[in-house]
Amino acid sequence: MAENREFMNRRLHSLLGVIPIGVFLIQHLTVNFFATRGAESFNAAAHFMEALPYRIFLEIFIIYLPILFHAVYGLFIVFQGKSNTRRFGYFRNWLFLFQRITGVYLLIFIAWHVWQTRVQAALGANVNYDMMTDILSSPFMLVFYIVGVLSATFHFSNGLWSFLVSWGITVNPRSQRIATYATAVIFVALSVIGMSALLAFINPDLANM
């Protein structure tokens, strides 16, 4: 029973990392990418998301609760410290290690990002282009956000590979190798989108080069 429960928890953990958390990550990066078109475009996109009906319900049940379960169970996996060297080999084991490291970092990053944006918005601040420009004007916060964005895109992309294996979609070495290439492309594409948005907040001219 315990093994079956752990198996189901791991599959749920993997599923939530893709749907809805992965979908939310792509949507969030897309909204941020509007900053490359200028402050007005970003503000319009951000305000559109804030004006969605049932936004609080969506945030709680589609974002916060799935992230909470994924984070708590992810920490459980981290502190178990089980290696997958025998199952996937040296390269994949390194990616498994980076997955755990980025997961811990993201727990800190997301908590701080929510504090700087959603909590401050609840206290009356405007979540807009000027807010992000002010946050990223600090060199420390800029590095913090760069590492956070890259951690998020890697964690999602590598987690997508694990999801395909866990759910029996890629079951042989060839399909897993193809998935490795595909998820690497996804990582690069999402990272470019995320970095472009950060550049737009600190230097619009660089973002539009």
From TrEMBL:
InterPro entries: Cytochrome_b-558 (IPR011138), SQR/QFR_C/D (IPR034804), Succ_DH_cyt_b558_Firmicute (IPR016002), SuccDH_FuR_B_TM-su (IPR000701). Keywords: Heme, Iron, Membrane, Metal-binding, Transmembrane, Transmembrane helix. GO terms for molecular function: metal ion binding. One of its GO terms (cellular component) is membrane. The chain crosses the membrane at residues 12-36, 56-79, 91-115, 135-157, 178-202. It holds the Pfam family Sdh_cyt. The lineage of its organism: Bacteria, Bacillati, Bacillota, Bacilli, Bacillales. This is Succinate dehydrogenase. Its main location: membrane. Heme binds at residues 28, 70, 113, 155. It is found in: Membrane.
